[in-house]
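Entry 14. Ran structure prediction on the chain below.
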Amino acid sequence: MENIFSVKGKVAVVTGAGGVLGGSIANSLSKAGAKIVVLDIRQENLDKKVAELQGIGGEAIGFICNVLDMNSLHETADKIVAQWGRIDILVNCAGGNVPGATLTPDQTIFDMKIEDWEKVINLNQNGTVYPCLAFGKVMAGQKEGSIINISSMATYSALTRVPGYSVAKTGINIFTKWLASELAQKFGEGVRVNAIAPGFFIGDQNRAVLINPDGSLTDRSKKVLAKTPMGRFGDITELNGAVQFLCSPAASFITGAILPIDGGFSAFSGV
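Output, C-alpha cells:
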C-alpha cells in the first residue's frame, strides 16, 4: 500500500540546517528517507551536521551558503542540481531574532537601534524570500516541489518586547500566501508553498527571557503557559511531523496555509 506521507528519495534543502530548528527537521526528513542538502553559513556547523546525518545512515551533502546573497544561492542551486538532479523540498530555517532587537523590560520602542531593526527584518524576510526565489525557480521548472517557511506566534497578536521579529515574521506570512498563489497559477498545482507557526519552544535564542539563571520560570514564561491550553512548552521535535506532512503527497491540495504548532496558544483567549 502506498504511503501518502512518504518523502523517501526526495531532495530536501534545509537552510540554517546547522542550527537547532533546521538540524531537527533535517534529521527527521533524513530518517524518513529524504536526501538532505545542508546549508549553513558556518563551515563548522555544516560539517558537523553532514557527518551526523551520514552517521544515522542518511544521504547528505552540504554547502556553505549565504541566504542573503542571491549569487551564493543560485550557485548553490546549480551545484545541487548537478549532483542530485532536482530539488523537491525547501525548508527555510535560517532566521531568528537579533539580541539587540529584543527590548528589555525597562525599554520602549524608541530605545531600539534602527540597525538592529534592519538586521532582524533582513535576516528573516530576505533570508526567506531569497532562497524561495533561487530554489523555487528550480521547482517551477520541474512543475513540482514544496516550500516550507517558518512563521511565529508573534504574527497572531502583539507580543511585547519583539517588535522587529514580529513584523518580519508577519511579512513571511503574506509572502507565503502570495508565492503559493503565484506558483500555482503560473507553474501548476505541483508547486506548493506553506508555513508552520511554532509556538513557544525553549532554545538558545529565547532561554534568557523564559528561564531564570536558577532554572525557574520567568514572569514571561508564566504568562505564556497561562495562555497555552496544553500548559507546557513544545519540544522542537514536535514540528517535524507537520513539516513532513506538508511536504508529502498527503498535502497535495494544501498551499498558502500557515499551520500553528502551539499547544493551542493561538486559539485561546486566556479566559
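The first strand starts at residue 11 and ends at 15. Will compare against last week's run tomorrow.
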